[in-house]
């Protein structure tokens, strides 16, 4: 490990000041030192499944009298001569603090220092997933991708792994296969032939000049190709999937960007691109700057699921430019993003009915999450207490949908014309900064301080209840126009299941021929919510064949159908559910399907998990293991 004064090009003038330490999920002393620039010089070794190299951290001295820098890490540094101490044991769930003592000759008043730390990842690195050629679609080349949210960057390299610290980034990644990273490309270059007959390597370089938190560090490398999906957008994916992915996104991407710009302000990251990952990716999307990482379940061949892109694009403002200061304030990332996503949907479709229809689907997701935790659970609060907790354990629809409802409430309370003036003000005030809920509140109150009507309305907001009360927020009066057809059809199936004499309903494919896939989702979720689950296995089979759900390629739809079938103990869906769980690693689908399959056929669920253990991302694998423990 090398410690040296920072170069003049990165050292800032002027006295730094101590900052408040707001994040309970980091071990770093970022109130005394804060990272301003990160350079990663890494080589991808597919054979060893290891990322190896050097990370250079430039840190600003905030305390002036601190001679120790404490970083988050889950890996072991390997320079025996450096003055550092790696704690003898982990502090769960946060890893192992790395304490670095500055040499006596280091000027304690220096504004910056740079640490150069040699690192190599291990098999326990939770931020990386390595895929063998057999686990990819064309089975020709290996693949690697990262997922650092929420606190997994520390398993890649020592850092201040908190969203309350933002730095610029330089990526120097050597690989035998194409590389993408969360910056603008400045390479590739410097080809090096292999000495053992294997493919040579190129150095792929990227730079991110907009400061970002460590959880947005991202890289991927594999057999990927690209195609244009707009004047400032490109899709990347496997060569065999490229045509389908291009078709899925090229119609809407630019329209989404322009719609978002009208609500907030111009897009700041130059280009917006999408990397469609292999199916083990655990999320619908990850908002890594410049390159959104997306699940292949979005590519359904019907453009019915591209709202995921509207969501991840919205993160370019909420989350990436303006970041939650800690995971306790995650709603500031996800609630705002849901709100902006639905504004985009309304603008593109030309009607608020579509926004409210999306919100109705979101409310069902909120109901499911609150049912999972229990209505009085800490994790159902808008601001949960995460001290000593793993943020991944709190992950659910709560910050997304409860956060959305909170912002939607302000829109209705103040009127959209006034509210729309606050939106760009908020995103300008905290641009390239991190923010907590109390700063959001103060900024909102200050903005409307001279508007007597708005100020009076905001004074009557029960802030403590919104922030700290567990369970449901007040349910808005959503426009149910698009959902009413779904509810009416669900009522007919319920009457059929209950053998009501007045029911003369005969299911037909015409029932849903004019529907979108999301209307089928609402229909199925309505049936899932019925008390005592009256839909019989026979009716599940009839529904699957009549409406084509059993053969659908749209995972959003078919996963809901299988969940309903499992709830109804329809054994005909048990095996297809297990097969789907071997093809899709997105936790949105994996969690409810495993939960129901464990309750219906634990042996099949256990066998399915063991067969696909290595297919799942480490984050997803850990989540499933906890489901088995909970339902043991």
Automatic annotation (TrEMBL):
Catalytic reaction equation(s): an epoxide + H2O = an ethanediol
Enzyme class per UniProt: hydrolase
Matches recorded under CDD domains: M1_LTA4H
Positions of Zn(2+) binding: 311, 315, 334
Active site: 312, 400
Predominant cellular place of this UniProt entry's protein: cytoplasm
Binding site for a peptide: 147-149, 282-287, 586-588
Cellular component, GO annotation: cytosol; nucleus
Names of the cofactor(s): Zn(2+)
Cofactor binding remark: Binds 1 zinc ion per subunit.
Keyword line: Aminopeptidase, Cytoplasm, Hydrolase, Metal-binding, Metalloprotease, Nucleus, Protease, Zinc
Annotated compartments: Cytoplasm; Nucleus
Region (Disordered): 1-20
Gene Ontology process terms (BP): proteolysis
EC number(s) given by UniProt: 3.3.2.10, 3.4.11.-
One example GO MF annotation: aminopeptidase activity
Protein name (Swiss-Prot/TrEMBL): Leukotriene A(4) hydrolase
Gene: LAP2_2
């Amino acid at each position: 490990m090398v410690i040296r004064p920072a170069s003049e090009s990165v050292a800032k003038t002027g006295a730094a000041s101590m900052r408040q330490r707001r994040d309970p999920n980091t071990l770093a002393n970022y109130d005394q030192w804060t990272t301003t620039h990160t350079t990663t010089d890494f080589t991808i070794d597919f054979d060893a499944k290891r990322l190896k190299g050097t990370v250079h951290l430039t840190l600003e001295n905030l305390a002036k009298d601190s001679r120790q820098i404490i970083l988050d890490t889950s890996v072991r540094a390997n320079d025996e001569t450096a003055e550092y101490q790696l704690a003898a044991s982990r502090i769960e769930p946060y890893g192992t603090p790395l304490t670095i003592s500055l040499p006596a000759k280091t000027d304690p008043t220096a504004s910056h220092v740079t640490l150069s730390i040699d690192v190599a990842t291990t098999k326990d690195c939770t931020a990386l997933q390595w895929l063998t050629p057999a686990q990819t679609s064309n089975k020709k080349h290996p693949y690697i991708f990262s997922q650092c949210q929420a606190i997994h960057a520390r398993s890649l390299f020592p850092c201040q792994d908190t969203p309350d610290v933002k730095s610029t980034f330089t990526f120097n990644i050597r690989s035998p296969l194409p590389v993408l990273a969360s910056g603008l490309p400045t390479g590739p270059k410097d080809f090096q032939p292999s000495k053992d007959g294997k493919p040579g390597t190129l150095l792929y370089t990227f730079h991110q000049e907009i400061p970002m938190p460590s959880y947005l560090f991202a890289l991927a490398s594999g057999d990927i190709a690209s195609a244009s999906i707009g004047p400032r957008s490109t899709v990347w994916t496997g060569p065999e999937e490229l045509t389908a992915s291009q078709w899925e996104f090229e119609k809407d991407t630019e329209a989404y960007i322009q719609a978002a710009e009208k609500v907030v302000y111009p897009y700041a990251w130059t280009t917006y691109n999408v990397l469609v990952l292999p199916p083990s990716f655990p999320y619908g999307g990850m908002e890594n700057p410049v390159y959104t990482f997306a699940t292949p379940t979005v590519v359904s061949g019907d453009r019915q699921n591209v709202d995921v892109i509207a969501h991840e694009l919205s993160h370019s403002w909420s989350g990436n430019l303006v970041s939650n200061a800690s995971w306790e304030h995650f709603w500031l990332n996800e609630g705002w993003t849901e709100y902006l996503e639905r504004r985009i949907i309304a603008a593109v479709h030309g009607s608020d009915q579509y926004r409210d229809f999306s919100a109705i689907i979101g409310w069902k997701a909120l109901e499911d999450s609150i049912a999972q935790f229990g209505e009085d659970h800490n994790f159902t609060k808008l601001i949960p207490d995460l001290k000593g907790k793993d943020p991944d354990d709190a992950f659910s629809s709560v910050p997304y949908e409860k956060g959305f409802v909170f912002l939607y409430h302000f829109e209705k309370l103040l009127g959209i014309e006034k509210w729309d003036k606050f939106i760009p003000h908020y995103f300008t005030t905290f641009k390239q900064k991190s923010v907590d809920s109390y700063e959001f509140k103060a900024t909102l109150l200050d903005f409307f301080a001279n508007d007597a009507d708005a100020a009076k309305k905001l004074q009557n907001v029960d802030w403590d209840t919104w922030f700290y009360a567990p369970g449901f927020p007040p349910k808005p009066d959503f426009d149910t126009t698009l959902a009413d057809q779904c509810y009416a059809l669900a009522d007919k199936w319920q009457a059929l299941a209950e053998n009501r004499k007045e029911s003369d309903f005969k299911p037909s494919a015409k029932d849903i021929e004019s529907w979108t896939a999301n209307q089928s989702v609402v229909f199925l979720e309505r049936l899932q919510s019925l008390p005592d689950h009256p839909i019989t296995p026979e009716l599940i089979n009839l529904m699957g064949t009549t409406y084509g759900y059993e053969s659908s390629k749209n995972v959003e739809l078919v996963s809901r159908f299988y969940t309903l079938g499992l709830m109804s103990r329809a054994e005909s869906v048990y095996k297809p559910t297990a097969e789907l769980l071997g093809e899709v690693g997105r936790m949105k689908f994996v969690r409810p399907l495993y939960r129901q399959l464990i309750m219906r056929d634990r042996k099949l669920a256990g066998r399915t998990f063991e067969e696909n253990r290595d297919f799942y991302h480490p984050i997803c694998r850990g989540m499933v293991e906890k489901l088995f423990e909970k339902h043991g």
